[in-house]
Amino acid sequence: MENFEKNVAVLIDTISIQQYIFSSNKLKENVGASNIVKRIFKEELNEILKNFDAKLGYEGGGNALILFNTRDEAISFIKSYTKNLLKKYPSLKTAFAIEENFRVDEPYYQESIKNLHKQLQKNKNIYFPEVVIQKHGITAECPLSGYSAEIKHENHFVSMVSKSKIEASKDIKELNEFLKKYPNYTFTLEINKLGQKSEKSYIAVVHIDGNSIGKRIQKIKSLKDMKEFSEKLSQITRNAFQKMLDTLIEKIENKKEYFTKENGFELKKENGKTVLPFRPIIIGGDDITFVSHGKLGIWLTEIFIKEFEKGILPDGKNVTACGGISIVKTKYPFYRSYLWAEELTSNAKKKFKEKEGSYLDFFVSSSGYTGSIEEIRNTNFKTRYGKNLFMNGYCLNDHRKDSFSVLKELAQQLSQFPRTKLMKLREMYFYSSEERIKTFKDEIEALTGKNLPEDLKESNFIEALELMEFYPFELEEV
Fold first, then answer.
1. Is 32 helix (H, G, I), strand (E, B) or coil?
2. What is the pLDDT of residues 245-273, one digit of tens each?
3. Separation between Cα atoms, residue 298 and residue 316, nearest integer Å
4. pLDDT tens sequence across 363-386
5. I need a labelling partner for 233 at 20 to 30 A (CA). Which of 227, 285, 334, 445 fits?
6. What does the alpha-carbon distance between residue 397 and residue 448 come to, in Å, rounded to a whole number?
7. HSE value, Cβ hemisphere, 13 Å, CA-based, for 271
8. Is 286 helix (H, G, I), strand (E, B) or coil?
Protein backbone atom coordinates (compact mmCIF):
# COMPACT_ATOMS: atom_id res chain seq x y z
CA MET A 1 0.00 0.00 0.00
CA GLU A 2 3.04 2.30 0.13
CA ASN A 3 2.24 3.84 -3.26
CA PHE A 4 -1.38 4.37 -2.38
CA GLU A 5 -1.51 6.58 0.72
CA LYS A 6 -3.87 8.89 -1.16
CA ASN A 7 -6.11 6.97 -3.53
CA VAL A 8 -9.21 6.83 -5.62
CA ALA A 9 -11.16 4.00 -3.99
CA VAL A 10 -13.93 1.93 -5.56
CA LEU A 11 -16.23 -0.07 -3.30
CA ILE A 12 -18.10 -2.91 -5.02
CA ASP A 13 -21.19 -4.46 -3.47
CA THR A 14 -23.90 -6.87 -4.57
CA ILE A 15 -27.63 -6.06 -4.50
CA SER A 16 -30.47 -8.41 -3.53
CA ILE A 17 -27.98 -11.23 -3.30
CA GLN A 18 -30.27 -13.55 -1.30
CA GLN A 19 -32.92 -13.31 -3.99
CA TYR A 20 -30.32 -13.99 -6.67
CA ILE A 21 -29.06 -17.11 -4.90
CA PHE A 22 -32.29 -18.57 -3.51
CA SER A 23 -34.93 -17.61 -6.06
CA SER A 24 -34.84 -21.09 -7.60
CA ASN A 25 -36.22 -24.29 -6.07
CA LYS A 26 -33.34 -26.19 -7.69
CA LEU A 27 -30.42 -26.79 -5.34
CA LYS A 28 -28.11 -26.89 -8.35
CA GLU A 29 -29.02 -23.30 -9.25
CA ASN A 30 -28.74 -22.12 -5.62
CA VAL A 31 -25.24 -23.55 -5.37
CA GLY A 32 -24.27 -22.21 -8.80
CA ALA A 33 -25.48 -18.71 -7.93
CA SER A 34 -23.48 -18.78 -4.71
CA ASN A 35 -20.39 -19.86 -6.64
CA ILE A 36 -20.93 -16.97 -9.06
CA VAL A 37 -21.01 -14.43 -6.23
CA LYS A 38 -17.66 -15.75 -5.00
CA ARG A 39 -16.28 -15.84 -8.52
CA ILE A 40 -17.04 -12.21 -9.33
CA PHE A 41 -14.88 -11.06 -6.40
CA LYS A 42 -12.06 -13.45 -7.19
CA GLU A 43 -11.42 -14.82 -10.71
CA GLU A 44 -13.56 -12.27 -12.57
CA LEU A 45 -12.25 -9.32 -10.56
CA ASN A 46 -8.61 -10.39 -10.86
CA GLU A 47 -8.97 -10.94 -14.61
CA ILE A 48 -10.23 -7.38 -15.20
CA LEU A 49 -7.71 -5.83 -12.79
CA LYS A 50 -4.84 -7.18 -14.92
CA ASN A 51 -5.59 -4.36 -17.35
CA PHE A 52 -5.34 -1.62 -14.73
CA ASP A 53 -2.80 -0.07 -12.42
CA ALA A 54 -4.72 -0.91 -9.26
CA LYS A 55 -4.52 -2.77 -5.97
CA LEU A 56 -7.05 -4.88 -4.13
CA GLY A 57 -7.65 -3.32 -0.72
CA TYR A 58 -9.72 -6.19 0.66
CA GLU A 59 -12.36 -8.69 -0.41
CA GLY A 60 -14.90 -10.45 1.74
CA GLY A 61 -18.51 -10.64 2.84
CA GLY A 62 -19.90 -9.93 -0.63
CA ASN A 63 -17.96 -6.75 -1.32
CA ALA A 64 -14.52 -5.56 -2.33
CA LEU A 65 -12.42 -2.39 -2.16
CA ILE A 66 -10.13 -1.49 -5.08
CA LEU A 67 -7.56 1.33 -5.09
CA PHE A 68 -6.66 3.35 -8.22
CA ASN A 69 -4.37 6.28 -8.99
CA THR A 70 -6.94 8.31 -10.92
CA ARG A 71 -10.70 8.71 -11.17
CA ASP A 72 -10.61 8.01 -14.91
CA GLU A 73 -8.99 4.63 -14.27
CA ALA A 74 -11.62 3.84 -11.65
CA ILE A 75 -14.49 4.66 -14.01
CA SER A 76 -12.91 2.69 -16.84
CA PHE A 77 -12.59 -0.30 -14.53
CA ILE A 78 -16.27 -0.12 -13.50
CA LYS A 79 -17.33 -0.06 -17.17
CA SER A 80 -15.19 -3.07 -18.08
CA TYR A 81 -16.14 -5.03 -14.97
CA THR A 82 -19.90 -4.50 -15.26
CA LYS A 83 -19.91 -5.25 -18.99
CA ASN A 84 -18.18 -8.55 -18.30
CA LEU A 85 -20.67 -9.46 -15.52
CA LEU A 86 -23.65 -8.51 -17.66
CA LYS A 87 -22.52 -10.82 -20.44
CA LYS A 88 -21.61 -13.77 -18.22
CA TYR A 89 -24.03 -13.51 -15.29
CA PRO A 90 -27.29 -11.74 -16.18
CA SER A 91 -29.66 -10.87 -13.29
CA LEU A 92 -26.73 -10.35 -10.92
CA LYS A 93 -26.87 -6.76 -9.68
CA THR A 94 -23.89 -4.80 -8.41
CA ALA A 95 -23.44 -1.33 -6.99
CA PHE A 96 -20.37 0.94 -6.85
CA ALA A 97 -19.12 3.97 -5.00
CA ILE A 98 -16.09 6.12 -5.75
CA GLU A 99 -14.20 8.11 -3.14
CA GLU A 100 -11.33 10.37 -4.15
CA ASN A 101 -8.51 11.14 -1.73
CA PHE A 102 -9.20 7.90 0.10
CA ARG A 103 -6.72 7.44 2.98
CA VAL A 104 -5.69 3.95 4.06
CA ASP A 105 -3.92 4.74 7.34
CA GLU A 106 -4.74 6.18 10.74
CA PRO A 107 -6.33 8.53 11.60
CA TYR A 108 -8.00 9.05 8.20
CA TYR A 109 -9.17 5.58 7.22
CA GLN A 110 -12.33 5.46 9.33
CA GLU A 111 -13.67 8.71 7.89
CA SER A 112 -12.74 7.67 4.33
CA ILE A 113 -14.50 4.31 4.51
CA LYS A 114 -17.53 5.90 6.19
CA ASN A 115 -17.89 8.36 3.31
CA LEU A 116 -17.51 5.54 0.79
CA HIS A 117 -20.31 3.52 2.38
CA LYS A 118 -22.58 6.57 2.46
CA GLN A 119 -22.02 7.07 -1.25
CA LEU A 120 -22.66 3.38 -1.92
CA GLN A 121 -25.99 3.46 -0.12
CA LYS A 122 -26.99 6.59 -2.00
CA ASN A 123 -26.15 4.95 -5.32
CA LYS A 124 -28.15 1.85 -4.40
CA ASN A 125 -31.21 4.05 -3.85
CA ILE A 126 -30.77 5.95 -7.12
CA TYR A 127 -29.77 3.37 -9.72
CA PHE A 128 -31.86 0.33 -10.62
CA PRO A 129 -29.99 -1.46 -13.41
CA GLU A 130 -31.80 -3.68 -15.89
CA VAL A 131 -29.72 -6.84 -16.02
CA VAL A 132 -31.88 -9.41 -17.84
CA ILE A 133 -33.40 -9.67 -21.30
CA GLN A 134 -37.08 -8.80 -21.09
CA LYS A 135 -39.66 -11.32 -22.25
CA HIS A 136 -41.41 -10.75 -25.55
CA GLY A 137 -44.53 -12.32 -27.01
CA ILE A 138 -42.51 -14.37 -29.48
CA THR A 139 -40.15 -15.98 -26.95
CA ALA A 140 -40.74 -19.06 -24.83
CA GLU A 141 -40.53 -18.88 -21.04
CA CYS A 142 -37.68 -20.54 -19.19
CA PRO A 143 -39.15 -23.39 -17.07
CA LEU A 144 -36.59 -22.75 -14.34
CA SER A 145 -36.45 -18.96 -13.93
CA GLY A 146 -39.49 -17.53 -15.71
CA TYR A 147 -37.24 -15.31 -17.84
CA SER A 148 -37.05 -15.49 -21.62
CA ALA A 149 -35.65 -18.84 -22.82
CA GLU A 150 -32.84 -17.87 -25.18
CA ILE A 151 -30.14 -20.56 -24.92
CA LYS A 152 -30.15 -24.34 -25.25
CA HIS A 153 -29.28 -26.48 -22.22
CA GLU A 154 -29.26 -30.24 -22.71
CA ASN A 155 -32.53 -30.95 -24.59
CA HIS A 156 -34.47 -27.75 -23.93
CA PHE A 157 -34.12 -23.97 -23.93
CA VAL A 158 -33.57 -22.01 -20.73
CA SER A 159 -32.70 -18.44 -19.82
CA MET A 160 -29.09 -17.33 -19.72
CA VAL A 161 -29.71 -16.63 -16.03
CA SER A 162 -30.39 -20.31 -15.31
CA LYS A 163 -27.72 -21.51 -17.70
CA SER A 164 -25.00 -19.47 -15.97
CA LYS A 165 -26.03 -20.77 -12.54
CA ILE A 166 -26.17 -24.39 -13.66
CA GLU A 167 -22.73 -24.15 -15.25
CA ALA A 168 -21.29 -22.50 -12.12
CA SER A 169 -22.63 -25.32 -9.92
CA LYS A 170 -19.87 -27.50 -11.36
CA ASP A 171 -17.25 -25.34 -9.63
CA ILE A 172 -16.39 -27.52 -6.61
CA LYS A 173 -12.77 -26.53 -5.96
CA GLU A 174 -13.53 -25.10 -2.51
CA LEU A 175 -15.62 -28.06 -1.43
CA ASN A 176 -12.94 -30.48 -2.59
CA GLU A 177 -10.56 -28.74 -0.20
CA PHE A 178 -12.88 -29.50 2.70
CA LEU A 179 -13.32 -33.10 1.52
CA LYS A 180 -9.70 -33.90 0.69
CA LYS A 181 -9.44 -36.12 3.79
CA TYR A 182 -12.57 -38.01 2.77
CA PRO A 183 -12.24 -39.51 -0.73
CA ASN A 184 -15.28 -41.76 -0.20
CA TYR A 185 -17.75 -38.91 0.39
CA THR A 186 -19.31 -36.28 -1.83
CA PHE A 187 -21.84 -33.43 -1.83
CA THR A 188 -24.94 -33.58 -3.97
CA LEU A 189 -26.65 -31.00 -6.16
CA GLU A 190 -30.06 -32.65 -5.78
CA ILE A 191 -32.32 -31.72 -2.89
CA ASN A 192 -33.89 -35.20 -2.76
CA LYS A 193 -30.52 -36.89 -2.15
CA LEU A 194 -29.90 -35.53 1.34
CA GLY A 195 -30.55 -38.87 2.97
CA GLN A 196 -34.34 -38.62 3.15
CA LYS A 197 -36.47 -41.71 2.64
CA SER A 198 -38.94 -39.88 0.38
CA GLU A 199 -40.13 -36.47 -0.82
CA LYS A 200 -42.52 -36.43 2.17
CA SER A 201 -39.51 -36.42 4.48
CA TYR A 202 -38.11 -33.23 6.00
CA ILE A 203 -35.09 -31.12 5.14
CA ALA A 204 -33.55 -28.33 7.21
CA VAL A 205 -32.58 -24.99 5.69
CA VAL A 206 -30.05 -23.26 7.94
CA HIS A 207 -28.71 -19.70 8.02
CA ILE A 208 -26.00 -18.68 10.52
CA ASP A 209 -24.62 -15.16 10.93
CA GLY A 210 -21.96 -13.65 13.18
CA ASN A 211 -22.99 -11.12 15.83
CA SER A 212 -22.03 -7.42 15.77
CA ILE A 213 -19.36 -7.93 13.12
CA GLY A 214 -20.37 -4.67 11.41
CA LYS A 215 -19.84 -2.68 14.63
CA ARG A 216 -16.41 -4.19 15.07
CA ILE A 217 -15.50 -3.37 11.47
CA GLN A 218 -16.45 0.28 12.08
CA LYS A 219 -13.75 0.47 14.77
CA ILE A 220 -10.97 -0.70 12.45
CA LYS A 221 -8.42 2.08 12.02
CA SER A 222 -6.55 1.21 8.83
CA LEU A 223 -6.96 -0.67 5.58
CA LYS A 224 -4.16 -3.02 6.59
CA ASP A 225 -6.09 -3.91 9.75
CA MET A 226 -9.29 -4.32 7.72
CA LYS A 227 -7.65 -6.82 5.40
CA GLU A 228 -6.27 -8.79 8.33
CA PHE A 229 -9.68 -8.73 10.05
CA SER A 230 -11.47 -9.95 6.91
CA GLU A 231 -9.03 -12.79 6.30
CA LYS A 232 -9.13 -13.94 9.93
CA LEU A 233 -12.94 -13.88 10.03
CA SER A 234 -13.10 -15.98 6.87
CA GLN A 235 -10.67 -18.48 8.35
CA ILE A 236 -12.71 -18.78 11.56
CA THR A 237 -15.81 -19.54 9.50
CA ARG A 238 -13.97 -22.12 7.39
CA ASN A 239 -12.55 -23.79 10.51
CA ALA A 240 -16.03 -24.07 12.03
CA PHE A 241 -17.36 -25.53 8.79
CA GLN A 242 -14.55 -28.09 8.69
CA LYS A 243 -15.28 -29.10 12.29
CA MET A 244 -18.97 -29.55 11.45
CA LEU A 245 -18.06 -31.68 8.42
CA ASP A 246 -15.51 -33.75 10.37
CA THR A 247 -18.02 -34.44 13.13
CA LEU A 248 -20.77 -35.50 10.72
CA ILE A 249 -18.54 -37.92 8.81
CA GLU A 250 -17.14 -39.35 12.05
CA LYS A 251 -20.71 -40.08 13.21
CA ILE A 252 -21.71 -41.60 9.86
CA GLU A 253 -18.76 -43.98 10.10
CA ASN A 254 -18.98 -44.84 13.80
CA LYS A 255 -22.73 -44.60 14.39
CA LYS A 256 -24.00 -46.49 11.37
CA GLU A 257 -26.93 -47.83 13.40
CA TYR A 258 -28.40 -44.33 13.57
CA PHE A 259 -28.36 -43.58 9.82
CA THR A 260 -30.92 -46.27 8.96
CA LYS A 261 -34.38 -46.37 7.43
CA GLU A 262 -35.86 -46.92 10.89
CA ASN A 263 -34.59 -43.45 11.82
CA GLY A 264 -35.72 -41.87 8.55
CA PHE A 265 -32.36 -42.05 6.71
CA GLU A 266 -31.43 -43.55 3.39
CA LEU A 267 -27.94 -42.36 2.44
CA LYS A 268 -27.47 -42.24 -1.32
CA LYS A 269 -24.50 -42.99 -3.59
CA GLU A 270 -23.10 -40.95 -6.49
CA ASN A 271 -20.23 -42.27 -8.58
CA GLY A 272 -19.46 -44.86 -5.92
CA LYS A 273 -19.23 -42.26 -3.13
CA THR A 274 -21.54 -41.77 -0.16
CA VAL A 275 -23.60 -38.60 -0.53
CA LEU A 276 -23.41 -36.51 2.61
CA PRO A 277 -26.82 -35.67 4.12
CA PHE A 278 -26.07 -31.96 3.98
CA ARG A 279 -24.95 -29.48 1.36
CA PRO A 280 -23.38 -26.04 1.92
CA ILE A 281 -24.69 -23.21 -0.25
CA ILE A 282 -22.86 -20.18 1.18
CA ILE A 283 -19.59 -20.25 3.13
CA GLY A 284 -18.10 -16.80 3.44
CA GLY A 285 -17.26 -13.93 5.72
CA ASP A 286 -19.13 -14.47 8.98
CA ASP A 287 -22.11 -16.32 7.55
CA ILE A 288 -23.03 -19.73 6.24
CA THR A 289 -26.14 -21.22 4.68
CA PHE A 290 -26.67 -24.93 4.15
CA VAL A 291 -29.41 -27.49 3.62
CA SER A 292 -29.48 -30.89 5.32
CA HIS A 293 -31.59 -33.87 6.26
CA GLY A 294 -34.33 -32.60 8.58
CA LYS A 295 -32.99 -34.42 11.63
CA LEU A 296 -29.50 -32.91 11.34
CA GLY A 297 -30.10 -29.17 10.90
CA ILE A 298 -30.34 -28.14 14.55
CA TRP A 299 -27.48 -30.43 15.61
CA LEU A 300 -25.16 -29.22 12.86
CA THR A 301 -25.98 -25.59 13.69
CA GLU A 302 -25.03 -26.19 17.32
CA ILE A 303 -21.72 -27.79 16.31
CA PHE A 304 -20.84 -24.96 13.91
CA ILE A 305 -21.63 -22.14 16.35
CA LYS A 306 -19.76 -23.71 19.26
CA GLU A 307 -16.67 -24.12 17.08
CA PHE A 308 -17.10 -20.63 15.61
CA GLU A 309 -17.07 -19.18 19.14
CA LYS A 310 -13.52 -20.45 19.65
CA GLY A 311 -12.26 -17.97 17.07
CA ILE A 312 -10.48 -14.78 18.13
CA LEU A 313 -10.37 -11.81 15.76
CA PRO A 314 -7.42 -9.39 15.50
CA ASP A 315 -9.13 -7.05 17.98
CA GLY A 316 -8.45 -9.72 20.61
CA LYS A 317 -12.09 -10.66 21.22
CA ASN A 318 -14.01 -13.86 20.62
CA VAL A 319 -16.87 -14.13 18.17
CA THR A 320 -20.46 -15.29 18.65
CA ALA A 321 -23.19 -16.14 16.15
CA CYS A 322 -26.91 -16.71 15.77
CA GLY A 323 -28.60 -19.37 13.69
CA GLY A 324 -32.05 -19.99 12.23
CA ILE A 325 -33.26 -23.44 11.23
CA SER A 326 -36.31 -23.88 8.99
CA ILE A 327 -37.46 -27.52 8.92
CA VAL A 328 -39.83 -28.23 6.02
CA LYS A 329 -40.98 -30.98 3.68
CA THR A 330 -38.57 -31.67 0.81
CA LYS A 331 -40.96 -30.26 -1.80
CA TYR A 332 -41.66 -27.02 0.08
CA PRO A 333 -40.63 -23.86 -1.88
CA PHE A 334 -36.95 -23.39 -1.15
CA TYR A 335 -36.83 -19.60 -1.23
CA ARG A 336 -39.63 -19.37 1.32
CA SER A 337 -37.79 -21.84 3.53
CA TYR A 338 -34.66 -19.70 3.31
CA LEU A 339 -36.58 -16.53 4.20
CA TRP A 340 -37.88 -18.31 7.28
CA ALA A 341 -34.33 -19.32 8.23
CA GLU A 342 -33.24 -15.69 7.88
CA GLU A 343 -36.17 -14.49 10.02
CA LEU A 344 -35.41 -17.11 12.66
CA THR A 345 -31.81 -15.87 12.72
CA SER A 346 -33.14 -12.34 13.25
CA ASN A 347 -35.25 -13.60 16.16
CA ALA A 348 -32.14 -15.10 17.72
CA LYS A 349 -30.26 -11.82 17.23
CA LYS A 350 -32.94 -9.97 19.18
CA LYS A 351 -32.09 -12.22 22.12
CA PHE A 352 -28.42 -11.39 21.57
CA LYS A 353 -29.22 -7.68 21.90
CA GLU A 354 -30.80 -8.38 25.29
CA LYS A 355 -27.80 -10.39 26.50
CA GLU A 356 -24.67 -11.16 24.51
CA GLY A 357 -24.00 -14.74 23.47
CA SER A 358 -24.85 -17.20 20.72
CA TYR A 359 -28.47 -18.14 20.05
CA LEU A 360 -30.54 -20.29 17.73
CA ASP A 361 -34.21 -20.42 16.80
CA PHE A 362 -35.99 -23.13 14.83
CA PHE A 363 -39.39 -23.78 13.31
CA VAL A 364 -40.94 -27.01 12.05
CA SER A 365 -43.54 -26.59 9.32
CA SER A 366 -45.70 -29.70 9.20
CA SER A 367 -48.88 -28.04 7.88
CA GLY A 368 -47.83 -26.02 4.85
CA TYR A 369 -47.87 -22.66 6.61
CA THR A 370 -47.50 -19.42 4.65
CA GLY A 371 -46.52 -15.94 5.73
CA SER A 372 -43.70 -14.81 8.01
CA ILE A 373 -42.61 -16.72 11.12
CA GLU A 374 -43.98 -13.88 13.24
CA GLU A 375 -47.38 -14.10 11.57
CA ILE A 376 -47.50 -17.89 11.80
CA ARG A 377 -46.53 -17.98 15.47
CA ASN A 378 -48.86 -15.16 16.50
CA THR A 379 -51.76 -16.74 14.62
CA ASN A 380 -51.21 -20.45 15.24
CA PHE A 381 -49.02 -20.88 18.31
CA LYS A 382 -50.75 -19.18 21.22
CA THR A 383 -52.93 -20.54 24.01
CA ARG A 384 -56.58 -19.54 24.32
CA TYR A 385 -55.37 -16.94 26.83
CA GLY A 386 -52.86 -15.42 24.42
CA LYS A 387 -49.72 -16.93 25.95
CA ASN A 388 -46.91 -17.81 23.55
CA LEU A 389 -46.25 -21.45 22.67
CA PHE A 390 -42.75 -20.57 21.51
CA MET A 391 -39.59 -18.95 22.91
CA ASN A 392 -38.27 -17.00 19.88
CA GLY A 393 -34.76 -18.32 20.39
CA TYR A 394 -32.50 -20.26 22.76
CA CYS A 395 -29.12 -19.37 24.21
CA LEU A 396 -26.23 -21.72 23.46
CA ASN A 397 -23.95 -20.39 26.21
CA ASP A 398 -25.90 -20.43 29.48
CA HIS A 399 -27.76 -22.99 31.54
CA ARG A 400 -30.56 -20.55 32.21
CA LYS A 401 -34.27 -21.08 31.46
CA ASP A 402 -34.00 -19.96 27.84
CA SER A 403 -30.88 -22.01 27.13
CA PHE A 404 -30.80 -24.70 24.49
CA SER A 405 -29.29 -27.18 26.95
CA VAL A 406 -32.43 -26.89 29.12
CA LEU A 407 -34.62 -27.54 26.08
CA LYS A 408 -32.57 -30.62 25.21
CA GLU A 409 -32.94 -31.93 28.75
CA LEU A 410 -36.71 -31.37 28.59
CA ALA A 411 -36.92 -33.26 25.30
CA GLN A 412 -34.99 -36.21 26.70
CA GLN A 413 -37.13 -36.31 29.83
CA LEU A 414 -40.34 -36.14 27.81
CA SER A 415 -39.20 -39.09 25.69
CA GLN A 416 -39.88 -41.28 28.74
CA PHE A 417 -43.62 -40.56 28.54
CA PRO A 418 -46.19 -42.11 26.12
CA ARG A 419 -46.23 -40.16 22.87
CA THR A 420 -50.04 -40.32 22.64
CA LYS A 421 -50.35 -38.58 26.00
CA LEU A 422 -47.81 -35.93 25.05
CA MET A 423 -49.64 -35.19 21.79
CA LYS A 424 -52.93 -34.91 23.69
CA LEU A 425 -51.26 -32.47 26.10
CA ARG A 426 -49.96 -30.51 23.11
CA GLU A 427 -53.49 -30.18 21.76
CA MET A 428 -54.81 -29.09 25.15
CA TYR A 429 -52.29 -26.23 25.36
CA PHE A 430 -54.08 -24.61 22.41
CA TYR A 431 -57.68 -24.95 23.54
CA SER A 432 -58.07 -26.01 27.18
CA SER A 433 -58.13 -24.06 30.39
CA GLU A 434 -55.09 -23.99 32.65
CA GLU A 435 -57.04 -26.00 35.23
CA ARG A 436 -57.82 -28.81 32.74
CA ILE A 437 -54.20 -28.85 31.59
CA LYS A 438 -53.01 -29.23 35.19
CA THR A 439 -55.50 -32.05 35.76
CA PHE A 440 -54.30 -33.88 32.64
CA LYS A 441 -50.67 -33.49 33.71
CA ASP A 442 -51.59 -35.09 37.04
CA GLU A 443 -53.20 -37.97 35.15
CA ILE A 444 -50.04 -38.51 33.09
CA GLU A 445 -47.89 -38.57 36.21
CA ALA A 446 -50.28 -40.99 37.96
CA LEU A 447 -50.37 -43.26 34.91
CA THR A 448 -46.61 -43.41 34.42
CA GLY A 449 -45.44 -43.04 37.99
CA LYS A 450 -43.05 -40.29 36.82
CA ASN A 451 -43.06 -36.55 37.36
CA LEU A 452 -43.14 -34.23 34.35
CA PRO A 453 -40.10 -31.92 34.14
CA GLU A 454 -40.20 -28.95 36.51
CA ASP A 455 -38.93 -26.62 33.77
CA LEU A 456 -41.83 -27.54 31.46
CA LYS A 457 -43.77 -24.42 30.42
CA GLU A 458 -46.35 -23.72 27.75
CA SER A 459 -43.68 -21.64 25.95
CA ASN A 460 -41.20 -24.50 25.54
CA PHE A 461 -43.34 -27.66 25.53
CA ILE A 462 -44.10 -27.78 21.79
CA GLU A 463 -40.51 -27.01 20.81
CA ALA A 464 -39.29 -29.72 23.21
CA LEU A 465 -41.61 -32.18 21.46
CA GLU A 466 -40.24 -31.10 18.07
CA LEU A 467 -36.69 -31.52 19.34
CA MET A 468 -37.53 -35.12 20.29
CA GLU A 469 -38.13 -35.78 16.60
CA PHE A 470 -35.57 -33.47 14.96
CA TYR A 471 -32.50 -33.68 17.18
CA PRO A 472 -30.20 -36.75 16.94
CA PHE A 473 -29.63 -37.40 20.66
CA GLU A 474 -28.18 -40.79 19.75
CA LEU A 475 -25.22 -39.07 18.10
CA GLU A 476 -24.29 -37.37 21.37
CA GLU A 477 -23.89 -40.67 23.21
CA VAL A 478 -20.31 -41.60 24.07
1. helix
2. 999 999 999 999 999 999 999 999 999 99
3. 29
4. 999 877 889 999 999 999 999 889
5. 334
6. 33
7. 7
8. coil
